[in-house]
Design goal:
The structure is a homodimer. The first copy, chain A, has about 200 residues and is of the alpha/beta class. Chain A has 8 helices and 6 strands; from the N terminus they run H-H-H-E-E-H-E-H-E-H-E-H-E-H.
């Protein structure tokens, strides 16, 4: 019987693409055949962009966000409020919050949440470095902006215990409730219950 | 305002992934962050597999399938029936037919179908080289295995006209009808009509 792929090089490239998350072998084949139709120059641009990033990536030594320098633009910016730290799970969360254009403080990227099921304990996360930042002074507020899951809540709780020695630092958490434009009847009961319990004064919006 | 990406290198890699078909910016970001979590060695394996393929790819000079040699394994195999040529649109189609394990002849990869809407005319396809293969003799049957679309049908028709000078070569086309395991009531009317018109003697399966 003839092997599935007519070219070992093709098979190797498809294998590599199929290792990416959410990419099956058929999608991998489609992507590789797309690349094959491009000029060799464009392929080089593609592989070099990936390679350059992975060989030269920096993480900000303050907040652990991905950066081109040792200190990221947000931490280095004189216009950001250095007394606020927003604690997030990953780099995408920083981007999501930046896109709201509602936050002018700094960040702290944990690199995940505590999840014993996945073998992730507090020491694999950037929790000690957060405590060090608070310890070095000048911080007025820590905003927990983690996922609204058991793991996210447990992580916020763990960090709040670690921050016990700093009673002057205010700890806050993102509000939870109905999403904007949600219809009440389709909101799940836990969210609706939380929304009701955490109701706020009506200001006429 | 801070730019969307905290790193220009990150943005460049995401840009490159987002150029792939069916990959949006969010997916591209997810793929790039996945790669960033890997060892640098694995990244190099990934980029080298892509690069090596695209720099060293060969197309079989007989059937135009992707190959590591000038003649592909199928065309070079002594056990294949060299009097049959199955005409397909692309490399994936060869793989699909090989996987049925029902075909022992050769292939001819056109590289697409005639599609004036996409600016693809007969001369961008490997049609002349197919006529040359037939002209050089020894071919008994051409099997049209193109997509069951207007473009596929038009391409088969165009090629059949080009093969008029070879009346001894039998032209066949894949049968069309209900898919195996399809329920009759859910089969579309055109397919069902074609299935009825092309009914075959009942052999008790």
């Amino acid at each position: 019987m003839i092997q599935q792929y007519s070219s070992a090089l093709l098979e190797r490239a498809v294998d590599e693409f199929a290792k990416l998350p959410g990419v099956g072998r058929k999608t991998a084949m489609r992507l590789v055949l797309h690349l094959l139709r491009l000029d060799v120059g464009k392929i080089d641009t593609f592989t070099q962009a990936v390679s350059t990033l992975c060989h030269n990536v920096h993480y900000c030594h303050v907040c652990h966000n991905i950066s081109d320098e040792d200190t990221c633009q947000i931490c280095a910016s004189p216009s950001r409020d250095k007394s606020q730290i927003c604690v997030v799970e990953n780099v995408q969360d920083v981007m999501a919050i930046e896109q709201t254009q509602q936050y002018r403080g700094l960040y702290h990227v944990l690199g995940g949440v505590i999840s014993p099921m996945d073998g992730i304990g507090p020491h694999q996360l950037e929790i000690d470095s957060l405590v060090d930042r608070v310890d070095s002074g000048g911080i007025k507020e820590i905003i927990f902006a983690l996922s609204s899951t058991m793991e996210g809540d447990a992580t916020s709780f763990y960090i709040s215990r670690k921050l016990k020695p700093f009673p002057d630092v205010m700890l806050t958490v993102l509000s939870r409730g109905m999403s904007i434009n949600d219809e009440l009847q389709y909101t799940d009961e836990v969210t609706l219950g939380r929304s009701l319990a955490n109701r706020v004064p009506f200001t006429g919006m």
